[in-house]
Design brief:
Elements (H helix, E strand, L loop, with lengths): L1 H12 L7 E6 H7 L4 H7 L6 E6 L2 H12 L6 E7 L7 H14 L3 E6 L10 E7 L14 E9 L7 E7 L4 E4 L26 E2 L3 E2 L1
Helix pairs in contact: 4-5
Amino acid sequence: AATGFALALARRALAGAEKPLLWARPEALSAESGAPYPPGLADIGLDPAAVAFIRVRDAKEALQAGVEAGRCATVGATLIEFWGEARAYDLTASRRLALAAAAAGAPIFVARVGASPAPSAAASRWLVRAAPSRALAANAPGSAAFTVFLLRQRGGAAGHEWRVEWNRDRGAFEDRTFDASSLSGPVASLPVGGTPGEGAPQTAGRKFG
């Protein structure tokens, strides 16, 4: 769920920009969850040909790739994935990423798969879980859906939960009004510029940030 949410945020960040997404992932995570699936990227709205996928040995190499990508003017956004409690991703490392992103003016998203919440210099931190998708006509699979909880947001309120669905055509998150009765927190319409993704994410069902 964390990776899908991060990819949707990256797609949103890249809207209108003819720049690639750089995606760095340790080999252990690819062994656990498989390689990126081009049709799945296209379903999110990303051009698979515009995704530069880098397989690295460990979290330290993933962080280095992220910092270098953040300094590159030709990269539109960067996604770094970790599996479990990546000790290399500490407060100092997250500050380096934040500085690189600010200097380049391009976002860096960090998806921590199967990790517990931890201190971070990310602009925002999210707890992300998969949610049931809404079936389309003829019972076809629906769009990706997530339950997201805002753990922290720099300069803003936190502690809110949304259940959102990704609209590939609009490049936006939408509220799950069809399932509103089961929500435990407020629901908001989330177009481009909406709440999820105002900064980098984390995940502990899956943690993102």
